[in-house]
Amino acid sequence: GENVEQHPSTLSVQEGDSAVIKCTYSDSASNYFPWYKQELGKRPQLIIDIRSNVGEKKDQRIAVTLNKTAKHFSLHITETQPEDSAVYFCAASRGFGNEKLTFGTGTRLTIIP
Amino acid sequence: GAGVSQTPSNKVTEKGKYVELRCDPISGHTALYWYRQSLGQGPEFLIYFQGTGAADDSGLPNDRFFAVRPEGSVSTLKIQRTERGDSAVYLCASSPSSTGSPPTEAFFGQGTRLTVV
């Protein structure tokens, strides 16, 4: 089955700097890669996703890149703010009838004011 | 509310007891998922429903776990003879995607925190 690895497990960044979180996956049939943000005691919420026919996607301060050949994808947050502090999870699925998400182990991001 | 609703929010039960966890998905969402999240870990897939049928139950850890969705809306996750290792947050998610269509966002509920003592 699919295996998703995520690094780093913790990340501290000065406010205003950029943060990068990286994930690798094992199943070459995976073609949907969402990123979820989870604040303490709250539900995971989608912040951005990318499908395999796209190499990069951007939404304001957040961007995701995908390298299907190398089987890795990354989350980039620019101009970080204190409210960006949370745990971030990457995930992968095949979609198209096989919808289960395999999640990474999470990255605890702390923005230092 | 328009989001995914899970009840109860917290459940404490004694080892060996039976528990039921309920999920109300977003109205009209055909796909429903159950995940389990242990402390410091990512959600772990348990089972996926498309309509009333379980399309993929490969994540259920053993036969003590069972889930139903009889009318294609509300789902119940059932755990028999609970063990201390079952303690975790059980998350439900729903999405409008259907078999053969491109994947879409899965919306998560707040979860049920299950503690087995």
Overall 3D form of chain B: globular
Separation, N- and C-terminal Cα atoms of chain A: 41 Å
Q: Please compute the radius of gyration of chain B using only Cα atoms.
A: 14 Å
H/E order of the elements of chain B? EEEEEEEEEEE
Tertiary shape of chain A: globular
| Average pLDDT for all residues of chain B | 94
Helix content of chain A: under 10%
Describe the structure.
The complex is a heterodimer of chains A (about 110) and B (about 120). With about 110 residues, chain A is mainly beta. Helix content of chain A is about 0%, strand content about 55%. Chain A has strands at about 5, 10-15, 20-25, 30-40, 45-50, 55-60, 60-65, 70-75, 85-90, 100-105, 105-110. In chain A, a hairpin with a 4-residue loop joins strand 7 (about 60-65) and strand 8. Chain A is globular. In chain A, about 35% of the residues are buried. Chain B is globular. The model of chain B has no long low-confidence stretch (mean pLDDT about 95).
Name the descriptors.
heterodimer; A: about 110 residues; six-stranded mixed β-sheet; five-stranded antiparallel β-sheet; 11 strands; about 0% helix; globular; B: mainly beta; four-stranded antiparallel β-sheet
Summary of the model, kept short:
The complex is a heterodimer of chains A (113) and B (117). Chain A has 113 residues and is an all-beta fold.
Topology:
The complex is a heterodimer of chains A (113) and B (117).
Chain A: E1 4-7, E2 10-14, E3 19-25, E4 32-38, E5 45-51, E6 56-59, E7 62-67, E8 72-77, E9 86-92, E10 102-103, E11 107-112
Parallel strand pairs in A: 2-11
Antiparallel strand pairs in A: 1-3, 3-8, 4-5, 4-9, 6-7, 7-8, 9-10, 9-11
Chain B: E1 5-7, E2 10-13, E3 19-24, E4 31-37, E5 44-50, E6 53-56, E7 65-68, E8 75-79, E9 88-95, E10 107-108, E11 112-116
Parallel strand pairs in B: 2-11
Antiparallel strand pairs in B: 1-3, 3-8, 4-5, 4-9, 5-6, 7-8, 9-10, 9-11
